[in-house]
Amino acid sequence: MVKINGESLDIAGKTLEEYLKMTEYDSARIAIERNGEIVPKSQYGETTLAEGDCVEVVSFVGGG
């Protein structure tokens, strides 16, 4: 299981890019932290989620 934003999901073995395709996140407006480290957008397709990973996905919201 991988914990994403506090929710346990059975997605170990998938890349961050594969996970994002299953969601409604706009990849241009998010940042991802995996096990305390920010993952560069250029590495989403190369970063494979492993059992026990803790991931935080933060969305940026504009306002005025």
Given as residue ranges, the uncertain stretches (5+ residues, pLDDT < 50) are none
Under the CATH scheme, the architecture is Roll
- The backbone outline, from C-alpha atoms, is globular
Number of separate domains = 1
| Relative helix content | under 10%
- Name the CATH class: Alpha Beta
- Classification by helices and strands: mainly beta
Distance from first to last alpha carbon: 39 Å
What's the total helix number?
Answer: 1
H/E element order: EEHEEE
By DSSP, the count of extended strands is: 5
Biggest sheet character: 5 strands, mixed
Q: Which topology does CATH recognise?
A: Ubiquitin-like (UB roll)
The main sheet orders its strands as 2-1-5-3-4
Q: Taking Cα atoms only, what radius of gyration do you get, to the nearest Å? A: 11 Å
- The fraction of residues assigned to DSSP E strands is 25-35%
Q: What's the average pLDDT?
A: 94
Identify the CATH homologous superfamily.
Answer: Beta-grasp domain
